[in-house]
Design brief:
heterodimer, A: 111 residues, mainly beta, 49% strand, B: 112 residues, seven-stranded mixed beta sheet, globular
Chain lengths: 111, 112
């Protein structure tokens, strides 16, 4: 089972770039890294997924170093509506390994 | 709207009882996942099914069981309920086994 660690909380201001790191030391070769956003009383929503190096989409970037033992979600120019909890998820590759969510990082964006 | 539906939205029951939570995945998705989220806690993976077969198992208690039916909907059965089972239970679906997951709105279970 992959073990994941995230900071409990982060504060930022509107317009700033926010980087949230997830540590996953015992990630398996086939595991993918996926990040989700969750608002109170709602299901998580997909942000981005990667396997190695860098992935970018219209809302975020994901940086994964060569050893894959950590990953960093980068949110450019956050707004108030980005205030939420962000989770990394490790797993989903081939085989029957369980999926592991990080404990979540509560991001508070101030005006 | 993710396209994943869960019923019921809320469920209140007593200790020792048994309940069934239902999930309908997005059209075309073959994988269904179940997660438990206790109050102010993170998401705990319970189990995954792919096209009717169990694919991966997480921290699912022996009192809990799940299945995926031929029409791909899934049910999570919780028995001998305890106070600590009170939580939000999410179902998610994906096309195969590793793509992005689409989460349902959850079922809030309260055990009194």
């Amino acid at each position: 089972l992959a073990k994941t660690t995230q900071p409990i909380s982060m504060d930022s201001y509107e317009g700033q770039e926010v980087n949230i790191t997830c540590s996953h030391n015992n990630i398996a070769t086939n595991d993918y890294i996926t990040w989700y956003q969750q608002f109170p009383s709602q299901g998580p929503r997909f942000i981005i997924q990667g396997y190695k190096t860098k992935v970018t989409n219209e809302v975020a970037s994901l940086f994964i170093p060569a050893d894959r033992k950590s990953s960093t979600l980068s949110l450019p120019r956050v707004s108030l509506s980005d205030t939420a909890v962000y989770y990394c998820l490790v797993g989903g590759g081939t085989g029957r390994r369980a999926l592991t969510f990080g404990s979540g990082t509560r991001l508070q964006v101030q005006p | 709207d993710s396209g994943v539906t869960q019923t019921p939205k809320h469920l209140i029951t007593a200790t020792g009882q048994r309940v069934t939570l239902r999930c309908s995945p997005r059209s075309g998705d073959l994988s269904v996942y179940w997660y438990q989220q206790s109050l102010d806690q993170g998401l705990q993976f319970l189990i995954q099914y792919y096209n009717g077969e169990e694919r991966a198992k997480g921290n699912i208690l022996e009192r809990f069981s799940a299945q995926q039916f031929p029409d791909l909907h899934s049910e999570l059965n919780l028995s001998s309920l305890e106070l600590g089972d009170s939580a939000l239970y999410f179902c998610a679906s994906s096309e195969g086994g590793r793509e992005e997951q689409f989460f349902g709105p959850g079922t809030r279970l309260t055990v009194l």
